[in-house]
Write a structure and sequence with these properties.
This protein is of the alpha+beta class. It contains 7 helices and 12 strands. β11 (about 275-285) and β12 (about 290-295) form a beta hairpin.
Length: about 325
Amino acid sequence: MKQTPKATSKKLTRNILLTVLAVIIVIFSLSFWVCYQALKAEYHARYVGMMNIASEKIAKTIRGVEMNAKNEFDEVEKHLDTPESVIAALESKSDLNPEVRGYFAAFEPYYFQQEGRWFEPYVHHVDTCAYELRMVGSARHNYHKSEWYIRAKQSKESFWADPYYYYDGTSISGHYTTYVKPIFDKTGRLACVCGADMTFEWLGKELQRIDEEIKHNDLLNRYIYDPADCYTVVINNDGSCIAYPEGKLLTMTKEQIGDAFQQQRSGTIELNINGVASTIYYTPIEHVKWSVAVVVAKQGVLRPLVILSLVFLIAAVLGMLVIWQILRRN
């Protein structure tokens, strides 16, 4: 049966609309894929940049602590004559490096006979400008059995000790990491192990400051309209989170991280953090067995793409309506 001109016109209109719709879908799919890849590359470059900046700043802080500590330890090494001269050497640097909570000299048993088995003077901050001296060595705090003391005695080299928690019921209790160096007297005998303590509470506040500084960095954020939620943490080589901004503790399992942190590698991990799909960018920090990690919420990364898709969809619908109206009138 021969079709009427009206039926033919409707069929032609339908075919044209379907063709236009197919072209729009193809263009939309290609555009979405290209924009997604470009956006992913942009965000990857941004957060790798953030990670590297944070790593460099933390490494700079650590180098500063080491340099300041070595000067302090040299003073102790020059004044091993009496307990009083050792204490005076520790106190001589009254304006301590602000990143350092305190300095100590943990002596070998009976190095000074009058001081007995445990002699460990500790000069530490009590507020922003003052410091005080405490004797912390005792049977309760038998530092001779501490991992850092044994390692320093055996290696005869300086190093950063593994993070630990120190508690004695006073204001100096807390989570620490310590830069340690063995000190030898003129006869070559081990006299003591000196240390410079840095608290992870302080480092957590430093991370928060670094995050704020990076988020307001014009060069990193020049092309980012709405940055994703992110924060920086410090990870030990066993994968445990040892320093983090307040309320931003990151917990990971051995199955999730493998041996990436133990082998001091750089890379990314996709994890679900407190119900939020996130990407973790990580890289090792110089001088220590730690890594810095930037945790980024993936939903923030895709937000601009979602907005672009909605705009494209609205434009496509309006375009289809315009074409339909033109075809209907003809």
